[in-house]
Design a protein that fits this description.
Length: about 300
């Protein structure tokens, strides 16, 4: 309540009065008040908030359209993306988007899974591009493709001479871990088929640091997406290999609040991202066995 008061520049009592009025009109509680434990959203409140977000985004789209018709401003789109995506493929898809719709002011917020959900809930972004790792977005999501895990290995490692590796073989080396919330947990659960977890030799939240650390011999890493399009390619000291184990593959998803009533600028961007991966094909965006490649668009 205090944060809302500061953001909106009105008193907390006014915010509470507005909430109580809304609750009276809808005949249900939006928040459950718990003494000494704050408040939490009720199921009815979840539906109220979802409807409110749709209304606010529709209002933003109306203002965007009016400004464009009046020549008052350049159209703008705000995208939240899983941190590594900003360097791996987002610029290439946005280049296609601009070629299709014309000049657009673009804002890209790159963050971990928790940050993306916060930005999405606060209306800081129009849509989010991420993996379906952790709690799912309750709003509408478009599933693009599965992206299986693969191994990143130094060419000086004996494993680099093989056409593929197993989780058991990777566990014999120190693990260079992409230590982002929920992502790190997903990566470590891939080793649950073994009796013991791998030794973590290096933790970082930066994709580029992962590549450099593996090249320098700190260990091996397990990642999902290689560089695509114009992204900076791997150095000569690195090799990526498919993993032979049957592991769960996260799905690349695009979340928005519009459901079936997507405005054109959102619909076109979603179409462009889906077309980008379709054009690349499984061999172009995934390091996978031939068997797995055949299922990557079964989403």
């Amino acid at each position: 309540m205090h944060a809302a008061s500061v953001s909106l520049r009105i008193s907390q009592s006014s915010i509470l009065a507005a909430i109580e009025l809304a609750e009276t009109e809808m005949g249900a509680r939006i928040f459950e008040r718990r003494p000494s434990r704050g408040v939490r959203v009720t199921p009815a409140g979840e539906r109220f908030i979802c409807a409110a977000r749709s209304m606010l985004t529709a209002d933003a789209e109306f203002k965007r359209t009016i400004a464009r018709l009046g020549g008052l401003s350049t159209p703008a789109i705000r995208i939240g993306c899983f941190n590594p995506f900003g360097a791996l493929f987002i610029p290439d898809t946005l280049k296609r988007y601009i070629e299709r719709v014309g000049p657009v002011e673009i804002s890209v917020l790159e963050g971990d899974q928790l940050q993306l959900r916060e930005w999405f809930a606060n209306g800081a972004v129009d849509l989010v591009v991420t993996y379906d790792i952790g709690p799912h977005f309750k709003e509408n999501t478009t599933r693009v493709c599965k992206v299986p895990a693969h191994a990143l290995i130094s060419r000086s490692d004996q494993l680099a001479r093989q056409p593929a590796v197993s989780i058991a073989e990777l566990a014999t080396r120190p693990l260079v871990l992409l230590d982002l919330p929920q992502t790190a947990l997903y990566l470590l659960t891939l080793f649950d088929v073994l009796a013991t977890q791998p030794t973590i030799g290096f933790r970082t939240r930066n994709y580029e640091t992962i590549r450099t650390s593996v090249a320098c011999g700190f260990g091996v890493s397990v990642l999902n997406m290689p560089p695509l399009g114009h992204a900076s390619p791997d150095g000569t000291e690195l090799i990526r290999l498919p993993i032979t184990d049957d592991l769960p593959a996260p799905t690349l998803v695009i979340a928005d609040v519009y459901g079936s009533n997507k405005p054109e600028y959102v619909r076109v961007l979603i179409d462009v991202i889906r077309e980008f991966f379709r054009d690349l094909g499984p061999h172009g965006f995934a390091i996978a066995t031939l068997k797995n490649e055949e299922t990557l668009f079964d989403v």
